[in-house]
Write a structure and sequence with these properties.
The protein is 33% helix and 25% strand. The chain is built from twelve helices and 16 strands. A seven-stranded mixed β-sheet has the order 7-6-5-8-9-16-11, sandwiched between helices. A five-stranded antiparallel β-sheet has the order 1-2-3-4-10, with no helix packed on it. Strands 12-15 form a two-stranded antiparallel sheet. Strand 3 and strand 4 form a beta hairpin.
Length: 357
C-alpha cells in the first residue's frame, strides 16, 4: 500500500487510511474519498469542504427535502403547543437528552442565571422552546437565510454569527453552549471546538449531539448523512480524543434511556459496507443547484416502527416502564422481521466540561 493511501487524521494526528475513493454524495458532479482512522475510530471525507449553496437551498426548501423536512415541521408546529419543550422532547431523543442534561446542570440554580448559547440554531425552535421553559438562551447560526426565518417566526433572539470569528473578540462568556447535529458539518473541527471552548465560563459545559459511529460494526463504510452535508462521522472515542486535546472532561448521556431512542436496523451486510444512494441528488448547473429525486434507499428501520413508538409513548410517556417496554418491542420486531440492530442508539450526546483552571 502506497503512502498516498494514507492521510493524517485531524483529530488524533495518526495515519488514517483511504477506504473508498471517488464517491458521490448529494451533488452529482462532486466526488469524495472516505477516510477512516483506526486509532480514534473517526471517519471523514476529503475534500473537507462544505457547500454553502447546498445549505441555503435546503433551508429555503426545507418543507420538501427528505430528512430535513422534519426540522421545518417542528418550527411551524411548536408555537401551537402549550408546553413547547415537552412536545419537542417527544419528537426525537436528542431533545430529550438536552433537556434532561440541562435539568441536571441547573439543579439548585436559577435557570435565568445560566447564560446559554445554541450554535447552529437553524429554524430556531429549540432556542424558542428552551426560552419558554425559563432558560436564558441566544440562538446563532452562520446562515443569514435561516436566522431571518427564526426571527420572523420566534422574535429577535437570534443572530447570524461565525463562531470562530466571534470567539476572537467576544466579551461575553457562557455557562452552557449547545450544538445539536453541528460538528459533523464543520470542516475545521478542532479550530471550531477550540473557539467554542474560549466562549465558556470557568465551569462551563458544551452539550453536543452527533450521529454515533460507535453504534455500528467496525467495517461499516458510512452511515451518516451524505457528503458534503456531513463531512465527519464521529465515534465516542473521537469525542474523547477531542476532549483530551482541549483539556476538557468528557461524559456521555445514556441515550438508551430515552423512550424514543432510534436504533439502526438492517438485513444485509452489504448495506453496511457499501454507500447507500441518497434520496435526492443535487445537480450543479452554472451557479444554481437543482433537485432531482432518486429511488428511495433501503430503509434503516421497518415502517411500523414510528407508529408503534408513538402509540407506546402516548400511552406510557409518564411511566418509567416505557424504556423497558419500548426496548422489548424493538427487539421482538427485529427478531420477527430478520433485522439486525445497532448496538447503541444512532444519536450520541456528549457533555464536555472545562477542567479546573
Amino acid at each position: 500500500m502506497s503512502k498516498t493511501d494514507f492521510i493524517e487524521c485531524p483529530i488524533c494526528f495518526s495515519q488514517a487510511k483511504i477506504v473508498s475513493r471517488d464517491q458521490t454524495g448529494y451533488i452529482e458532479s462532486c466526488t469524495y474519498d472516505i477516510i477512516h482512522c483506526d486509532k480514534c475510530d473517526t471517519s471523514f471525507v476529503i475534500p473537507l469542504e462544505p457547500n454553502d449553496d447546498l445549505y441555503n437551498f435546503i433551508y429555503q426548501n426545507g418543507e420538501i427535502i427528505s430528512g430535513y423536512d422534519r426540522y421545518y415541521r417542528y418550527a411551524n408546529k411548536i408555537k401551537d403547543e402549550k408546553n413547547p419543550i415537552r412536545w419537542l422532547t417527544r419528537q426525537e431523543e436528542g431533545y430529550l437528552g438536552v433537556f434532561n442534561t440541562l435539568k441536571s446542570i441547573s439543579k439548585n440554580k436559577n435557570k435565568k442565571d445560566l447564560h446559554m448559547l445554541e450554535i447552529g440554531s437553524g429554524y430556531g425552535y429549540l432556542t424558542y422552546a428552551l426560552n419558554c421553559a425559563g432558560y436564558n438562551i441566544l440562538g446563532v447560526d452562520i446562515s443569514q437565510t435561516v436566522v431571518d426565518y427564526a426571527i420572523a417566526q420566534f422574535g429577535n433572539n437570534y443572530q447570524q454569527m461565525d463562531i470562530i470569528e466571534f470567539s476572537k473578540s467576544a466579551s461575553e462568556m457562557y455557562d452552557v453552549i449547545i450544538f445539536m447535529e453541528v460538528i459533523e458539518h464543520i470542516p475545521n473541527v478542532m479550530e471550531f471546538m477550540s473557539a467554542v471552548r474560549k466562549l465558556l465560563k470557568k465551569n462551563g459545559s458544551m452539550i453536543i449531539s452527533t450521529p454515533n459511529k460507535s453504534a455500528f460494526p467496525k467495517e461499516t463504510l458510512w452511515h451518516t448523512d451524505w457528503f458534503p452535508l456531513h463531512l465527519w462521522w464521529f465515534s465516542e472515542e473521537s469525542i474523547r480524543r477531542i476532549g483530551k486535546t482541549l483539556n476538557m472532561n468528557v461524559n456521555f448521556y445514556d441515550m438508551s434511556k430515552c423512550f424514543n431512542a432510534s436504533y439502526a436496523l438492517w438485513k444485509n451486510q452489504d448495506y453496511l459496507t457499501n454507500l447507500a444512494t441518497p434520496p435526492y441528488k443535487f445537480t450543479l448547473g452554472g451557479e444554481k443547484l437543482s433537485l432531482q429525486k432518486q429511488s428511495e434507499p433501503e430503509p434503516l428501520r421497518p415502517n411500523t416502527r414510528s407508529l408503534l413508538r408513538r402509540i407506546i409513548s402516548k400511552i406510557f410517556e409518564k411511566l418509567d416502564t416505557i424504556q423497558m417496554m419500548a426496548g422489548i418491542m424493538r427487539l421482538i420486531r427485529c427478531k420477527i422481521q430478520g433485522y439486525k440492530r445497532s448496538s447503541k442508539p444512532c444519536c450520541m450526546m456528549a457533555i464536555l466540561s472545562k477542567n479546573f483552571e
